[in-house]
């Protein structure tokens, strides 16, 4: 192979002299007369642009899943990542047209294909060190004024390329290699990158797992340094946390279906993906390896996995098809921060077979986009086409430039080289740190510039500022997967504060027809933000606590006074009142609309009826002062139940008439907001709605009057006072409800009604039961019949 011979013959070069760069020798020692190094096969660059200084570009224009042969005759299959290469060309053209950056100098470029494979990446690195074209130096002895290399995508390829460039001190700026291994300046002294170090990503993933309480996870990685270092870093981050790793598996670099199925099935009595209790799987792998792996995963019909994706595949457009959603929908991960390249969309449309009639990559692009061949070559298996077709919306995988991520990194990398070269050329003779304006790497290390609002620079290890977008895969309107930005990781913030939501707060949106554990993160609408989740059920907890206290102390005087049965009835009715709010949540349906107002009105009528019965008992007990007065016999337990039943029955009859005559129904409100259709419940009959509210108001007013009359009756614990206060709060809430409800449009009316239900229920619970709980728990010495009746000895 060429590589060992190359390293045997490389001479030590300390600096890169731009005016006269050293020419790396590709000549293999002559073993016999007439034998010299010759290229075994032409390896032409995909695109070439001439200039005073040349930037090399290495991109995975194809993805390889098979071992390329070692005699350099391997030919790669169809085009990928074509847009990244065009972004580099665009950046170079912009710089050459700029009057401020590198005036009087031009940049050129040579772009090669690595096929996302280390051996092919090695071949591209050797080719980029040659002249502008291999045809110019068929005996491997030509060299170009190579300034720097922008590449590579995968960390495994970048390791190979960086080692080849290292002896020549040619800096390399990667746009997608995030392996933490590159921070070792002894091994990679000329390596820079515009993507964050994986140490930040694994820390972010650890925070994510802990925040979502995912404590039992599986780990899958690719067979390369990127995956190995990332998994080691994540395990290190998880030490001392509740998160445990159930299994670790590796996808072979040369994909093997048998090995992949072992990862998905039970192997050697070890439970893995299908059978493991760990339903959260973190994957550090590249898009090229994940594509066949996920294909087999879908064929095995494994579902119920919550995927946590690394930046290498979390925004891969190949997985956006609708067929992936049942298996990958809900995936969350950390993606490269998106940017904006204003001219990219227009530039991509200029790349077509008419402009580049002999370019194989452009031909393959057309075959991928249109399924036809613009050339008349016999080797093409596609029907012919003119090559003048226009790029359409369905070509979003290529034309979507609204939020470039990797392409934006390529853009920054080219500008970093240009700014560094600009600073180097401004250095006056004798005043710089090196002689003859020689070391670009120094200026690259020190460069600082802005693209838009983002500052670009490198630390001492060649790393850039750590930013990530938090990406969630959600189902789009057409069933396809959309990458939704749901947050930001800012590595410059203090520990524990790096994760922040983009829009403030998010809610869990359960997917229709899927288990409740499957959800998407959906931004809360304006005015609908709550920092409490429904799992807290703090309403319900308070009621349960009061019920527990009363039941445990049910034989004490404070509970038994004025019929303890009524107290438990009131607690039961209040529970139903609180639960009524649940029917106001969610999309209105025919049944939920009928249940909303009727359930609320009947439960509140039941609650007020119980309080009315208790009020009558209090009033009768303290007014029956004459001997032989038998008024209490008319208000015994049976009579009290009769009062409650009959009072509630009236409300039931009103509601039944309402449902029979003009029941509530779901409707679509398009009058409030033109841009939105609001799904709401129409009351059906406004008269019936106000009748049920009026009856509850009548009960409350009657209860208030009777309690007010009994407020000054003797005794240390006169429950009528607290009933009076509770009815005042109840009436105040519902009197305020009427104008608020009438003036609230659309779905805000439901929010107003829910608030009125909760506020009045809390008022009743607090006024009626808080005083009793206070005596039971904090003043047990007063929990006697003598004290309550005011007859205790002094």
Automatic annotation (TrEMBL):
Keywords: Cell membrane, G-protein coupled receptor, Glycoprotein, Membrane, Receptor, Signal, Transducer, Transmembrane, Transmembrane helix
SUPFAM superfamilies: Periplasmic binding protein-like I
Keyword Cell membrane: yes
Signal sequence region: 1-17
GO cellular component terms, semicolon-separated: plasma membrane
Transmembrane spans: 538-554, 566-586, 598-622, 643-660, 687-710, 722-742, 754-777
Domain G-protein coupled receptors family 3 profile positions: 546-792
A Pfam family reported for this protein in Swiss-Prot or TrEMBL: 7tm_3
Membrane topology type: Multi-pass membrane protein
Xref: Gene3D superfamilies: 3.40.50.2300
PANTHER family with a match to the protein in the record: CALCIUM-SENSING RECEPTOR-RELATED, EXTRACELLULAR CALCIUM-SENSING RECEPTOR ISOFORM X2-RELATED
Name used for this protein in its record: Olfactory receptor C family, v3
């Amino acid at each position: 192979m060429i590589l060992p011979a190359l390293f045997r013959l490389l001479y030590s070069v300390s600096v890169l002299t731009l005016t006269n760069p050293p020419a790396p020798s590709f000549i293999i020692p002559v073993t016999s007369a007439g034998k010299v190094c010759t290229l075994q096969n032409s390896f032409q660059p995909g695109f070439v642009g001439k200039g005073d200084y040349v930037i090399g570009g290495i991109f995975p224009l194809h993805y390889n899943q098979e071992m390329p042969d070692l005699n350099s005759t391997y030919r790669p299959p169809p085009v990928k990542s074509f847009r990244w290469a065009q972004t580099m060309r665009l950046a170079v053209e912009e710089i050459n047209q700029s009057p401020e950056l590198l005036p009087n100098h031009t940049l050129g470029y040579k772009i090669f294909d690595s096929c996302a494979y280390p051996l092919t990446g090695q071949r591209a690195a050797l080719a980029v060190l040659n002249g502008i074209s291999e045809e110019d130096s068929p005996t491997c002895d030509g060299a170009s004024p190579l300034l720097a290399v922008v590449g590579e995508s995968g960390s495994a390829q970048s390791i190979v390329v960086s080692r080849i460039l290292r002896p020549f001190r040619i800096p390399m700026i990667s746009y997608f290699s995030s392996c933490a291994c590159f921070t070792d300046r002894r091994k990679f002294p000329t390596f820079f990158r515009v993507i964050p170090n994986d140490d930040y990503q694994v820390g972010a993933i650890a925070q994510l797992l802990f925040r979502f309480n995912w404590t039992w996870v599986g780990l899958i990685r690719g067979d390369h340094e990127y995956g190995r270092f990332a998994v080691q870093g994540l395990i290190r981050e998880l030490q001392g946390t509740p998160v445990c790793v159930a299994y670790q598996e590796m996808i072979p670099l040369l994909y093997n279906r048998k090995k992949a199925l072992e990862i998905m099935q039970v192997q050697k009595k070890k439970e893995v993906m299908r059978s493991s209790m760990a339903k959260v799987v973190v994957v550090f792998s590249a898009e090229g390896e994940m594509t066949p792996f996920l294909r087999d995963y879908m064929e095995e019909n494994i579902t119920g996995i919550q995927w946590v994706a690394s930046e290498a595949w979390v925004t891969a457009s190949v997985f956006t098809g609708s067929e992936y959603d049942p298996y990958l929908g809900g995936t969350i991960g950390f993606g490269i921060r998106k940017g904006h390249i204003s001219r990219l969309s227009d530039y991509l449309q200029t790349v077509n077979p008419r402009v580049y009639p002999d370019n194989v990559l452009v031909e393959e692009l057309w075959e991928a986009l249109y399924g036809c061949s613009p050339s008349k070559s016999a080797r093409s298996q596609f029907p012919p086409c003119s090559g003048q077709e226009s790029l359409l919306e369905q070509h979003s995988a290529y034309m979507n430039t609204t939020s470039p991520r990797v392409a934006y990194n390529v853009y920054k990398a080219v500008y970093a080289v240009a700014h560094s070269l600009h600073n180097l050329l401004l250095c006056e003779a004798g005043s710089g740190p090196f002689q003859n304006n020689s070391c670009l790497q120094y200026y690259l290390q020190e460069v600082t510039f802005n693209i838009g609002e983002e500052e670009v620079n490198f630390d001492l290890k060649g790393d850039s500022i750590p930013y990530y977008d938090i990406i969630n895969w959600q189902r789009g309107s057409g069933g396809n997967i959309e990458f939704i930005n749901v947050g930001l990781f800012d590595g410059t913030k203090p520990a524990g504060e790096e994760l922040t939501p983009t829009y403030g707060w998010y809610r869990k949106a359960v997917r229709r027809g899927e288990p409740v554990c499957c959800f998407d993160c959906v931004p809360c609408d304006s005015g609908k933000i709550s920092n409490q989740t429904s799992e807290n059920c703090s309403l319900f907890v308070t009621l349960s606590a009061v019920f527990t206290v009363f039941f445990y102390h049910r034989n004490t005087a404070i509970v038994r006074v004025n019929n303890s049965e009524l107290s438990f009835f009131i607690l039961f009715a209040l529970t139903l009142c609180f639960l009524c709010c649940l029917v106001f949540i969610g999309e209105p349906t025919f049944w939920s609309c009928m249940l909303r107002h009727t359930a609320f009105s009947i439960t509140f009528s039941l609650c007020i009826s119980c309080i009315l019965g208790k009020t009558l008992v209090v009033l009768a007990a303290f007014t029956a002062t004459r001997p032989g007065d038998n008024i209490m016999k008319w208000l015994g337990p049976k009579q009290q139940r009769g009062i409650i039943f009959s009072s509630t029955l009236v409300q039931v009859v009103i509601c039944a008439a309402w449902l029979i005559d003009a029941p509530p129904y779901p409707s679509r409100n398009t009058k409030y907001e033109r841009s939105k259709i609001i799904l709401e419940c129409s009351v059906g009959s406004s008269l019936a709605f106000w009748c049920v509210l009026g009856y509850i108001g009548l009960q409350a007013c009657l209860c208030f009057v009777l309690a007010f009359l009994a407020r000054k009756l003797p005794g240390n614990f006169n429950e009528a006072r607290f009933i009076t206060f509770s009815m005042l709060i109840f009436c105040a809430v519902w009197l305020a409800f009427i104008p608020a409800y009438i003036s609230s449009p659309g779905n805000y009316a439901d929010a107003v009604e829910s608030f009125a239900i909760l506020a009045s229920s809390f008022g009743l619970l607090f006024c009626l039961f808080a005083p009793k709980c206070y005596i039971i728990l904090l003043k047990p010495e007063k929990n006697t019949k003598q004290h309550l009746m005011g007859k205790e000895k002094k």
